[in-house]
Write a structure and sequence with these properties.
Number of domains: 3
Number of strands: 7
Helix content: 55-70%
Strand content: 5-15%
Strand order of the largest sheet: 3-4-5-7-6
Order of helices and strands: EHHHHEHHHHHHHEHEEHEEH
Amino acid sequence: MAAASVPFARPPLRRPRECFVSGTAAGVAAHLGRPVGVVRAIFVLLTFLWGAGLLLYAWIWVFTPWDEAVPTTPARAADAPSGASGRLGQAAPSRRVPVAWILASVAALGTVGVLAELAQSIQSGAPLGPGWFSSVALTAVAAVAAGLWATLADRADPARGPRHELSVRLVVTGILLALVLTQVAVIRQQGIVPFLLAVAILAGIAIVYSSTLVGKWRELSGERVRRIREEQRAEMAAHLHDSVLQTLALIQNRAGASSEVARLARAQERELRSWLFDGDTPADSDLPTDLRDYAGALELDYPARIDVVSAGLSTERASGEVAAAAREAMLNAARHAGGDVSVYIEGTARGVDVYIRDRGPGFSLAAVPQDRLGVRESIIGRMRRVGGSATVRPGAGGTGTEVHLHLAGEEAARG
């Protein structure tokens, strides 16, 4: 029995971000399930029918969105210039064909031809015909197109960027100025035509640089919008601080640190403060941020109130051994002591110190059975293996327990 034919699952019409020029032919080929070479050949053949292929290509180019997928590597995304990415997780389109340089080369060759014909006309004394002025106009159009493409398309391309745009723009400006000089050279003999053409070429230079001004204007507009958002966020933070945050703090004080109501109020207060004061920028994965997040998670699971205070600057990351040892000590304090737990982080050029203090009944490390390796290996042993130290001792006045973690910095190690 013949196998049943599987219907072709037609993907949506999207242009791939890795493309030759615009991704139009590749997008149409993927949508129709046909080879991309056949689609390109159809566009070329239709162009001979009064430009129908070129118009169809331009129409699909304008109205077809980019593909949502990102076929780029993280290293390449890191090399992208600022503003090169659109939405989060998407890279700017990258074109393999250097369109701007191709157009600039065409304009340069056209300029050489224009200058050669002008020199021949000056030697022979014969006036220049309409074909020469048409060549000048087409050359100027190619140069302006190269400048616009470099600014509007190649500037955001991770493979090119602002330096590529600046190089193309300088070459284009030189070509256009040379064309202006050719019109100035024949303006007395040829009348109004070279004058109008020279004005048009100067307008082309202005258009090339105006595209950069448009980008700058968009950046200024975006900065103004961000500043307005920050002002609104500050006003909202002030209002919520005087109302909601104070109410949550009052609930915690009245309910007690170990009650379920206080823990929920504490968690809501932490989330609200993070939303208000962290802004749109994700917090860096440093040691204080990691321990604050971990403290919030512990408060939801254990009857404890954990305050994390940081002083100084620490280069210790959340993925380091100090963070792992501190998390283990915080877990022990929340699980066995409960109540109020304080975490103090002090970072200096000579190292980082972390103090975890609780107000529980306390314990003696010597009295802990040898098969209980939580404190000996997860805290003391971990710090010893990385060249640091960890001490466990009774708290102030003999109440509770204090765990002190210390890791020397680069300057202390050298000294």
